[in-house]
Write a structure and sequence with these properties.
- The protein is an alpha/beta fold.
- It has a single domain, classed as Alpha-Beta Barrel (TIM Barrel), CATH 3.20.20.
- 35% of the residues lie in helices and 16% in strands.
- The protein is built from 9 helices and 11 strands.
- Strand 5 and strand 6 form a beta hairpin.
- The protein is globular, with a radius of gyration of 17 Å.
- Belongs to the BtpA family.
- InterPro entries: Aldolase_TIM (IPR013785), BtpA (IPR005137), RibuloseP-bd_barrel (IPR011060).
- This is BtpA family membrane complex biogenesis protein.
- It holds the Pfam family BtpA.
């Protein structure tokens, strides 16, 4: 029997398959405004919500990113997966489809918090290439409460949709929570669990949105997996070169927004400057 550290060795490189290059990939995050059904939604017409998300997507595209992740980041406070309404999936699917049509970029879907099954449904409807799932294996205590790994149910649902081509990008030691439940296991073991449960790529992050992960921490995760590795927080034009010397791709948002704040609009010139540094 193969050890868990060998499981990902023969798996296709999802980064290269999706983005056409194996290293140096930059993925921008479209933080959608609050959708109907969430506390911060203020009654805007559907078209206004779509235009806001599309404006950020096109700014990223003109700035030269390789792909995008669409997130319902305006739906604060985030609900647990079983409490997310069908309206969220509907609005996200329409938004994602519009972004694909307008930008032509590969996209991924992340439904917060940890809603892998809605994300897969949206991805299938909008021709997205991948989903991001923040807790794929094991469990942790998040802002939303106890969050359990989604792998078993999500992979069965993906099979039901005949959507095996949608890749899973999964966080290891995910941000915004406490890992007391698995504190007796090393980070390397947690990374191997994600790999063993058939994720296609691993995401490493800092402690919260905008926080950078240390180089030592990234190397620790890099050594534990054969899968592609991405950094999912804290990447700026000043540290992207060092980060991309360790990992294969970066997911970036806050540092490319007006004022460096995630809820503001994307600054196209900041995207261009970031891409020059990344290349």
């Amino acid at each position: 029997m193969s050890s868990s550290s060998e499981v990902g060795r023969g798996r296709a490189d999802s980064i290269k398959q999706i983005f056409g290059r194996a290293r140096g990939v930059v993925i921008g995050v479209v933080h959608c405004p609050a959708f109907p059904g969430s506390p911060r939604y203020e009654g805007q017409p559907t078209e206004a919500l779509l235009e806001a998300a599309l404006a950020d997507a096109t700014a990223y595209a003109r700035g030269g990113v390789d792909g995008l992740i669409i997130e319902n980041h305006g739906d604060v406070p985030f609900a647990k997966p079983e409490d997310i309404g069908h309206e969220t999936s509907a609005f996200m699917a329409v938004t994602a489809d519009r972004i694909v049509r307008e930008t032509g970029l590969p996209i991924g879907i992340n439904v917060l918090a940890n809603a892998a099954i809605p994300a897969l449904a949206i991805a299938a409807a909008s021709r997205a290439a991948f989903v991001r799932v923040n807790q794929w294996a094991n469990a942790y205590v998040a802002n939303e409460g106890l969050i359990e790994g989604a792998a078993a149910r999500a992979l069965r649902y993906r099979s039901q949709l005949r959507a095996e081509g949608i890749r899973v990008f999964a966080d290891a030691h995910v941000k915004h929570g406490a890992h007391a439940i698995v504190a007796d296991r090393s980070i390397e073991e947690l990374v191997r669990d994600v790999e063993f449960f058939d994720a296609d790529a691993i995401i490493a992050t800092g402690q919260r949105t905008g926080d950078a992960a240390s180089s030592d921490y990234l190397r620790q995760i890099r050594a534990a997996t054969h899968l592609p590795l991405l950094v999912g927080s804290g990447c700026t034009e000043h540290n992207v070169g060092e980060i991309l010397s360790i990992v294969d791709a970066v997911i970036v948002a806050s540092s490319l927004k007006v004022g460096g704040v995630w809820w503001n609009a994307v600054d196209e010139e900041k995207v261009r400057q970031f891409m020059r540094a990344a290349r």
